[in-house]
């Protein structure tokens, strides 16, 4: 059994702005208290920089590593401190402490990667995380306690578009914002009979291997065109920002917002259309670390790689279909016939041991599929390969079908089959 969690947004007309402000202050106080009691310890860390041609120079530095207080005694004292003068239900304090630790752990992870400075996180967004202990659910009606026996919020999602999809599901935590509320629903689902399909994530495509349909390529060139177009505009504005910093700053914010919104729209439609194209499949992805890949590439490659949205695709898809991850090591450089190392040439790979040759992205997708089945990449029988794989000759190989995201529809547009 696998637990599937779905999240939907619903508008509300509650006057919760004062409550949101109080919770924001509470959450910041929790972060402040944890931060003040954080222990910093020195640790020697090894770094390197490229000298070109895969040569590196190594050096070490001393970094301060944060360790947050985790004892039950500290958490009890923190709870008692936050409860003073808190006029609402006590469970909101527990929610704020849990959220504060979550924010700080996320900051620590990025700090250790060099993506954040040693500065305390500040809560800027107004939201309230509502635990299930603060809710009473009866059918499609939910009552949220603000002050016990005094003040409540009520909502009914029976008229929302997603009602039929989740009417038999369990209601989870809510997140209240100024104009809407995020509802989460969960259900235990049996996926044992589902087909597994693998996805090899590349810069401008997702290459899918389906055990019945073969190799399918999802063309993402439009996604990268959108990002590249706005990046050029933003770079141009940055180059002249000194001449009129205030006016250019407004333009930069506008184009950053447009860039984000257009990419989010594309990714949402990609996730919907992928889930509709393969409704009964378990999606197997490589567990990629883009940050490590950025350290080894050229400046031009890193700029292209920074536009890749692999984790966002997986995140949006995970609300709709079951996801599994496999180790990405050597999936594009291991021969699926004999298990030897493949040599790459112009997007094709060739095995000098057995003579097998194919498109590099197809081999990557096929090997991810094998690893998703729990099979080691030590070679497969040639007769077990699908008919669209070449019989050993090194030649250009095409996917059985190429699909593109339809920005005006609900299913992929098939470029060719």
Automatic annotation (TrEMBL):
InterPro entries xrefs: Cas12f1-like_TNB
UniProt KW keywords: DNA-binding
Cas12f1-like TNB domain location: 319-368
One Gene Ontology term of the molecular function aspect: DNA binding
Name of the molecule in the record: Transposase
Species of the source: Thermococcus litoralis (strain ATCC 51850 / DSM 5473 / JCM 8560 / NS-C)
């Amino acid at each position: 059994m696998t637990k599937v969690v779905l999240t939907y947004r619903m508008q509300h007309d509650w006057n919760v702005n004062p409550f949101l402000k109080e919770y924001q202050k509470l959450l910041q106080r929790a972060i402040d208290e944890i931060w003040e009691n954080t222990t910093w310890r020195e640790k020697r860390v090894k770094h390197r920089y490229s000298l070109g041609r895969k040569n590196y120079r190594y050096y070490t530095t001393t970094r301060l590593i944060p360790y947050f207080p985790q004892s039950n005694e500290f958490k009890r004292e923190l709870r008692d401190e936050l409860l003073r003068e808190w006029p609402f239900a006590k469970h909101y304090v527990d929610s704020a402490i849990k959220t504060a630790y979550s924010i700080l752990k996320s900051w620590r992870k990025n700090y250790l990667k060099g993506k954040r400075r040693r500065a305390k996180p500040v809560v800027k967004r107004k939201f309230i995380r509502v635990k299930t202990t603060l809710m009473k659910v009866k059918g499609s009606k939910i009552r949220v306690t603000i002050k016990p026996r005094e003040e409540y919020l009520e909502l009914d999602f029976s008229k929302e578009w997603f009602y039929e999809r989740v009417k038999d599901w369990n209601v989870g935590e809510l997140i209240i914002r100024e104009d809407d509320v995020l509802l989460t629903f969960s259900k235990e689902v049996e996926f044992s009979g589902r087909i597994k399909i693998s996805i090899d994530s590349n810069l401008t495509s997702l290459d899918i291997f389906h055990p019945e349909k073969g190799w399918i390529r999802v063309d993402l060139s439009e996604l990268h065109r959108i990002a590249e177009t706005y990046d050029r505009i933003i770079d141009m504005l940055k180059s002249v920002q000194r001449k009129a910093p205030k006016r250019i700053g407004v333009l930069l914010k506008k184009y950053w917002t447009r860039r984000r919104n257009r990419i989010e729209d594309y990714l949402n439609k990609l996730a919907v259309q992928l889930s509709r194209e393969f409704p009964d499949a378990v999606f197997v992805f490589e567990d990629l670390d883009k940050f490590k890949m950025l350290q080894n590439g050229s400046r031009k490659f890193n700029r292209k790689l920074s536009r890749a949205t692999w984790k966002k695709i997986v995140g949006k898809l995970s609300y709709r279909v079951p996801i599994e991850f496999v180790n990405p090591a050597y999936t594009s450089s291991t021969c699926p016939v004999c298990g030897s190392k493949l040599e790459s040439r112009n997007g094709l790979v060739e095995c000098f041991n057995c003579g097998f040759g194919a498109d590099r992205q197809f081999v990557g997708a096929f090997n991810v599929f094998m690893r998703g089945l729990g099979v080691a990449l030590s070679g497969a029988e040639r007769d077990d390969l699908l008919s669209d794989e070449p019989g050993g000759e090194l030649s250009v190989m095409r996917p059985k079908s190429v699909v593109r995201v339809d920005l005006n529809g609900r299913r992929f547009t098939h470029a060719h089959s």
